Structure to design on (168 residues):
């Protein structure tokens, strides 16, 4: 159909004060940074009350223990594999243990009849590491500079990523 799902990754310090603007604009999911929110359980409750989905982002240097207690109430977990801000940064492979730990916890939660949050990674994903992060157990990889760069057209770069994922 013509339905488009819109998530909004709020890379801002005042998500608690501004999230309603994005909901009013029609987004389907708000994704906020654990590091920038004072009371994440309260934010989850407020956003849920509008019928909007909620995701939580953690930066590369944030411990997974800050997000794990929220897992039963989240629709998405986003692991940043670069320090947020400027595009085109180098991928930080040390986030692998976080991705794998979230995958294990999400699968366990699902097996116990709980919610199954989407597991997403964002930052430095390109043709040379897309298959690797897929193997870690992610559901979605955000690809920015891996598509839009001076190595080729968007179509050419997308094809390179697809071929890498297919093992060619």
């Amino acid at each position: 159909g013509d339905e488009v799902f819109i998530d909004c990754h709020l890379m801002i310090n005042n998500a608690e004060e501004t999230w309603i603007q994005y909901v009013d604009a029609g987004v389907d999911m708000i994704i906020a940074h654990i590091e920038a929110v004072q009371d994440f359980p309260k934010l989850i409750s407020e956003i849920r009350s509008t019928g909007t989905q909620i995701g939580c982002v953690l930066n590369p240097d944030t411990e997974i223990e800050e997000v794990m207690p929220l897992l039963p109430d989240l629709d998405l977990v986003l692991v940043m594999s670069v320090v947020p801000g400027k595009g085109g940064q180098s991928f930080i492979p040390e986030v692998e243990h976080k991705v794998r730990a979230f995958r294990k916890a999400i699968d366990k939660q699902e097996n116990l009849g709980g919610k199954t949050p989407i597991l997403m990674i964002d930052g430095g994903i390109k043709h040379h590491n897309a298959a690797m992060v897929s193997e870690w157990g992610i559901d979605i990889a955000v690809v920015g500079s891996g598509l839009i760069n001076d190595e080729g057209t968007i179509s050419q770069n997308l094809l390179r990523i697809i071929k890498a994922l297919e093992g060619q």
Remarks:
- The radius of gyration is 16 Å.
- The chain has five helices and six strands.
- The CA atoms of residues 28 and 51 lie 8 Å apart.
